[in-house]
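1st attempt posting a full record on here, be nice pls
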Amino acid sequence: MKTSTIKPLPPKWILIDAAGQTIGKVAVKAASALRGKNKVTFSPHLLCGDHVVIINAAQVKLPPKKGLRKTYHRHTGFPGNMKHASLTLMMEKKPTFAVENAVKGMLEANRLRNSMLTRLHVYADAEHPYAAQKPVSVSLSR
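the predicted structure (as tokens):
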């Protein structure tokens, strides 16, 4: 049996303003666009998503208790060196990490995830170097 695969369209550029939005809502919209679920030519085995630029990641809104309850863990590899950091501490130190990690958690854990994450660009403030690509601004419903 012969099957055919539709070639994916070239990726577009999408701009998401995260100021005043919850971190989950921003991550859902970004993960859907990175995966390509909004396109007619979506195929789960192909990289057919768009480039996503998220600005104002430092101004993302968090639920009141989530900042203390959610913790990030990392291990240095030496015995007894497990490092812990809360979400509020990570938002102060590196706000882009929290948004990137939320988007990464919403993508499927398969071979395409790393290549999808290379199309994600997160910035803490409103300035980004991708103005020449003319990203289309996407509004998030409140």
